[in-house]
C-alpha cells in the first residue's frame, strides 16, 4: 500500500497586523504567508514590503486617518508618521492620494470614542475619495455608535469585530450586506469577548464575511498562527469551506501541505497547520483543496 495522499492548501493570511511593533523576522518561512499592515509609518512599512522576510508577502494600508488629536494620536507606540490628521472634507482627497502614492492597498480610518472623532462630513469625504481611487476603506470602530457610523458611511471593512456594544439586529443585517469584518477576537476576554462573539455569531448567521486577523503587535499576541483566534472563529459559527476561506489565502497564495485530511472544524484546522510545511510543486497523489 502506498502512502496516503497529502492535502495541499493555501497558506495563512493575517489581515490585521502592525509590523512596526513586532519582530518581523519571526514571520519568516512559516505557515503565515501574507500579512496586511493596518496602520504604520508608510515609508517604514513600504520598505518592509519591498524586502520582507523569506516566505512572506506584506500588504499595507499606510497611516491611521483620524481627526486632529484622534486615536491613536499621542500613544507611545504610534510614531507621528503613522497618524494622518484630516481636519476638513477638503483634505480627504489629498490624504487618499498620498496612500495611493505610497502603494497602500486601502485607507485606514479610526472612529474611537473617548478621543476626538471625525465628523460625518469628513468621514464621508474620506470614504468617497477612497472609493474614487478604487481603494477599500478599513475602519477601527470603537465606542457607542461608531460601528453604525462606519457602516452607514460606506466602509468596506471593520478591522475588529465590534466589542464595545451589542449591535442591534438591523445594523447587523446592514453590516452583513455591506462590509467584511476582521476577527481579532482573541485580544479580548471577559465581557468584551462575550459582546464580540455575540456580534460575530449574528453577523455570520446573517451572511456576513468574517476573516482571520490577529492585531499582531497589540500586546502579547504571538507571531505566526494564532490558534486561539482560529478557535474563536469556530465559536463564531465558521466551519468547512467558510472557515478555510477566512483563515487561508486565495488559491494563488503560496501553499502548504499536510498529511492530515482536509480540515473542516477549527480544531481540525489548527492541527492541520501544526503539521503543515511549505508545499513542493504538485505531484501525482496530491490533493489541491480549498
UniProtKB/TrEMBL annotation:
SUPFAM superfamilies in alphabetical order: Metallo-dependent hydrolases
InterPro entries: Metal_Hydrolase (IPR032466), Metallo-dep_Hydrolase (IPR051781)
Signal peptide positions (record): none
PANTHER family: ALPHA-D-RIBOSE 1-METHYLPHOSPHONATE 5-TRIPHOSPHATE DIPHOSPHATASE
Protein name: Amidohydrolase family protein
Higher taxonomy: Bacteria, Bacillati, Actinomycetota, Actinomycetes, Micrococcales
Amino acid at each position: 500500500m502506498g502512502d496516503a495522499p497529502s492535502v495541499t492548501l493555501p497558506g495563512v493570511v493575517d489581515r490585521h497586523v502592525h509590523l512596526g511593533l513586532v519582530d518581523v523576522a519571526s514571520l519568516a518561512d512559516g505557515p503565515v504567508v501574507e500579512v496586511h499592515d493596518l496602520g504604520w509609518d508608510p515609508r517604514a512599512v513600504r520598505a518592509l514590503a519591498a524586502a520582507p522576510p523569506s516566505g512572506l508577502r506584506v500588504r499595507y494600508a499606510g497611516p491611521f486617518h483620524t481627526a486632529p488629536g484622534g486615536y491613536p494620536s499621542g500613544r507611545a507606540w504610534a510614531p507621528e508618521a503613522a497618524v494622518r490628521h484630516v481636519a476638513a472634507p477638503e483634505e480627504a482627497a489629498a490624504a487618499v492620494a498620498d496612500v495611493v502614492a505610497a502603494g497602500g492597498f486601502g485607507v485606514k480610518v479610526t472612529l474611537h470614542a473617548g478621543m476626538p472623532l471625525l465628523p460625518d462630513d469628513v468621514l464621508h469625504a474620506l470614504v468617497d475619495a477612497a472609493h474614487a481611487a478604487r481603494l477599500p476603506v478599513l475602519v477601527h470602530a470603537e465606542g457607542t455608535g461608531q460601528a453604525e457610523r462606519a457602516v452607514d458611511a460606506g466602509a468596506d471593512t471593520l478591522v475588529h469585530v465590534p466589542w464595545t456594544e451589542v449591535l442591534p439586529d438591523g445594523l447587523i443585517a446592514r453590516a452583513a450586506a455591506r462590509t467584511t469584518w476582521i476577527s481579532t477576537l482573541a485580544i479580548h476576554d471577559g465581557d468584551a469577548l462575550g459582546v464580540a462573539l455575540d456580534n460575530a455569531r449574528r453577523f455570520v448567521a446573517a451572511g456576513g464575511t468574517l476573516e482571520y486577523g490577529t492585531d499582531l503587535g497589540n500586546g502579547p499576541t504571538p507571531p505566526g498562527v494564532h490558534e486561539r483566534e482560529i478557535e474563536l472563529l469556530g465559536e463564531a459559527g465558521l466551519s468547512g469551506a467558510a472557515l478555510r476561506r477566512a483563515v487561508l489565502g486565495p488559491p494563488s497564495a503560496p501553499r502548504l501541505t499536510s498529511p492530515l485530511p482536509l480540515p473542516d472544524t477549527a480544531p481540525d484546522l489548527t492541527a492541520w497547520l501544526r503539521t503543515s510545511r511549505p508545499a513542493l510543486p504538485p505531484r501525482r497523489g496530491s490533493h489541491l483543496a480549498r
